[in-house]
Amino acid sequence: MRIAVIADIHGNVLALDAVLDDLERRGGADITIDLGDCVSGPLWPRETMERLQALNLPTVRGNHDRRVAQDPADETMWPSDRYARDQLTVAQREALLALPLTLEIVPGVIAFHARPDHDEKYLADAIVDGQLVRAPLAAIRRRLKPLDPACQLVLCGHSHRSELIAVPGGPIIFNPGSVGCPAYDDDTPPAHVSEQGSPHARYGIVELREDGRPNRFESIAVTYDHEAAARQAETVGRPEWAHALRTGFMKD
User: Fold this and answer.
1) Mean per-residue pLDDT for 134-141?
2) CATH architecture group of domain 2-247
3) What is the strand order of the sheet 163-166 is part of?
4) Closest Cα partner for 175 from 55, 36, 28?
5) Confidence (pTM)
6) What pLDDT shows up at residue 252?
7) Which pLDDT score is estimated for 49?
8) How far is CA 16 from CA 122, 157, 180, in A?
9) From CA 158, how far away is CA 194, in angstroms rounded?
10) Which residue in 5, 22, 25, 31 has the most C-beta neighbors within 10 A?
């Protein structure tokens, strides 16, 4: 079985289309799973949502999917979520909110956005000197405890950092990185940044053996017209997003 894994599109329909085109050139997949945070951002939330609804991919709810659907909107709503919320229909927001927290793709393969029991806490990351880095193994094991011990493969996003971690005595964790948002800052204490380090659209492919065990992983970075995405961010007054889209880094 061949599973394509996409995550953290954040309204970047240009990056999404580039990833889907690249996947098709590679022979496609038996199933494509979307790990959430679909539309939040100053880009093309409505167009992205319409594209995803037409594809009807199995999808889990990200923290920004929940936040975009917040009703009523208030002063605590982050600008990217508010922008996306204003572009979507009520039915589209309700569809985001109704997404499941976790999905079992096949026996032993579990997908979720951040952690199995929370859509906004990091699974495999820690914050050190304002940067996301890999968390200690003991912390990762503790965060995996809500999972069934029979789980062999975890698919997650949220951090926007591509990761492949084989937990000794536990599952393999695979994070494909972000399709549409290569860097971000989060001022929630402790404030930190995540930086992929290039403007590429990221996704992944996992191949399973006949017995269901993961056999092969690909972390893929695709070029696309990131300059057009950066200009769109500038158009709606988000220069920090434009810099991230052009470089994969947050501005100093």
Assistant:
1) 98
2) 4-Layer Sandwich (3.60)
3) 102-106, 109-112, 153-155, 172-175, 163-166
4) 36
5) 0.97
6) 82
7) 98
8) 23, 15, 7
9) 10
10) 5
